Amino acid sequence: MAVNTADAGPGRLVLFGSFTSSSSYKPMLYLALAGLPFSFRTVNLKNGVQRTPEYLAVNRYGQVPALRHGGLTLVQSNVILDYLARATGHFAGATEGERWTAREWLSWESDQITNVAKVRHYSRFRAVDPAVMAYFRPLAEAALGFVDSVLADGRDWLAGGPGPTTADIGCWGRMVFMAEGGIAITTFPHLARWAERLRALPGFALPYDLIPKRDTEFAGRGVAPAL
Length: 227
Ligand SMILES: N[C@@H](CCC(=O)N[C@@H](CS)C(=O)NCC(=O)O)C(=O)O
What we know:
Elements: E1 14-17, H1 22-34, E2 38-42, H2 53-56, E3 66-69, E4 72-75, H3 77-88, H4 96-124, H5 130-151, H6 166-175, H7 189-199, H8 207-210, E5 216-218
Parallel strand pairs: 1-2
Antiparallel strand pairs: 1-3, 2-5, 3-4
Helix pairs in contact: 1-3, 1-6, 4-5, 4-6, 5-7
The structure holds glutathione.
């Protein structure tokens, strides 16, 4: 099954992703929370579509997600989140300080919360030597513990402002599959309450409810993008 790389029309946001992918969930969740219209193009990772010449022309790294918009192609989920925040005006942060703090969290996320994704991957998709798990699991738990400790100061959102930012979407989007790695969210009570705040936002959905297995046009909620 090939990937559809056809142009979706001027100004249309086109997201390439896969339903099992936390990296794909991050921009999907952003678009769902922002209520924006977009075209979803599925990339079947199981069939190796990410390594076909057609898709490598979209994402040279052979990974999902990728975003096409206005003649640009963006890859790397956190870069896509930052682009969407700038291009559409949602979840960017209310102040210059908050905007930089959100980017700082996204950078840290790709350093540390990525360990949660590794533990989930080795639990669900690829069996590894127990020594590999014994290395990554404490790193994953430490990353989640760090987020929990930051939220313990009473802030509602990671960047410290009055509303959620790309920091919350990016960090949650990567850690969402922690249960598939055998890590219980209840171990981290402040983080669990923050996740409840995210779940209460209009448009929120969990990955398997949000990311389709086939190409889909999302109508959005009639929110005009500030493009
Ligand atoms: N740092 C990248 C990671 C992307 C990534 O690892 N994507 C995985 C799915 S979650 C993928 O496409 N894997 C396909 C493969 O490695 O063959 C990002 O945040 O976008």
